Amino acid sequence: MEIVQFIFSTWWITFLGGFLFFTFLYFGGAFLGLLLKKKFKLAAISPYRNYSQQVKKEIKISLLSVTVFALEGIPVQWAYTQGYIHISEQASIWALCLQVSILFLWNELHFYLSHYLLHHRWFFKKVHYLHHQSTTPTEFSTYSFHWFEAVLLGSVIYLPMLLYPFHYLALLLLPVMSILLNVLGHWNHDLAAGKSSQHWLGFCHRHSLHHQKVRGNYGFFLQIFDKLFNTNLKNERA
Question: Using one digit for the tens of pLDDT, what is the confidence trace for 106-126?
């Protein structure tokens, strides 16, 4: 718990720690994706239609998103020092697994609702269009979005922390899970090649299809919300 207290001791330590953490996640996730593609020689989902200097621009925009994520840690630091939120340091393995599962499900719902909002005509034109410039996404597309979108997606942690004292490992695992799924959803390679897009690993194809078709498939790993609100794309393969 001394580490938690140190990270939240001052706003600038919280900001610096967040910036380094998310920078590591971003580049670590991207390079891990590149290594996996090279090692397993996975099939591409669609032909590459990258625009000029796409990866360079994605990295530049993503570093701005990383900065926004780090800034969003400052309100958490303030709430922690004022006693409005609490972070647990003790939990059984089962309690930790339950907390991670709850945060994962909340992240899926939060992403779906945020993503659906971002596809409203005004938000898409002013904000979300930037992410969709990557018609064929890459491993470096994961954080490549408008600063407002970064604020919206980064706010996922606020409500859970206000409602319950989650263990610090569960809180750390949330962005780790998120970046891994985002890399796999944007790397344009299929983990379920030859299988239906409804396969549990079909999220890679479903999100790539979303980048091509723009409308529909607003969820990420889970299909439940797209099915519930009838926003899933029916196409099996692009």
Answer: 999 999 999 999 999 999 999
